Amino acid sequence: xxxxxxxxIAVLAKASIDPNLVEVDxxxxxxxxxxxxxxxxxxxxxxxxxxxxxxxxxxEIHVLSALTWGPIDRRxxxxxxxxxxxxxxxxxxxxxxxDEGLINGDPSITSLALARLAEKLGGxxxxxxxxxxxxxxxxxxxxxxxxxxxxxxxxxxxxxxxEDKRVKAVxxxxxxxxxxxxxxxxxxxxxxxxxxxxxxxxxxxxxxxRKPINKYSLSDLGIEAVERRVERKAIKILxxxxxxxxxxxxxxxxxxxxxxxxxIREGVIKPGx
Length: 273
Description:
Blueprint: E1 7-12, E2 15-17, E3 37-39, H1 41-57, E4 59-66, H2 72-89, E5 93-97, H3 107-120, E6 126-130, H4 141-149, E7 153-163, E8 166-173, E9 176-183, E10 186-190, H5 202-208, E11 214-216, H6 252-265
Parallel strand pairs: 1-4, 1-6, 4-5, 5-11, 6-10, 7-10
Antiparallel strand pairs: 2-3, 7-8, 8-9
Helix pairs in contact: 2-5, 3-4
């Protein structure tokens, strides 16, 4: 896969169900159909990084997305509206896969569809994605996507540099930072630490609604049959009972000491930590 003089950049973006507006039934099943779609927050970090790369090196940005929440007859237009937020940030082209075979699918299915879409569009020099979607948080898609395309992947990136067709990245791995390099093309998943996404103006949002969104089915991408490795039966809320620990004392100092002791017993804090 050749690297062009100016960068051809892909951003993998997802219209996620909003975890802040959870609705459940009497059996603690999450009613996903009743929850609105929003753009996954880490994907906005990916888009911001794409914009910064374009500003430094030139090129064009394509947003690749797949609708994974149903029902399609209602969610399709909702997903389009959600993607307008990414378009308003500065995407040059936007591509959305809409197919019943993707609804409630696992990351393997979504990764395959997005990889085939990337190939149909001629491939890209760099693929940027959020470290995880804000609804399912599996962090699997970037690696699966890269494996299908046969290119390197660097995950959990908090700092990114591109020079001489190579990428140098600092990975945030819980208690350690790791610096790695690879040649382009490559897939990069970014953390929320990498940047602060820019705000969009009302004018940019209005203009975004005038831009077309290119749509595809699985058959358009040469995928005739979908093998589901995971079948999602339900998404449940696990109830958590409060311990209702009451801290009492004759002074604030005494209560503070008792609170610290309780936190140490629960393993929330460590002495001297």
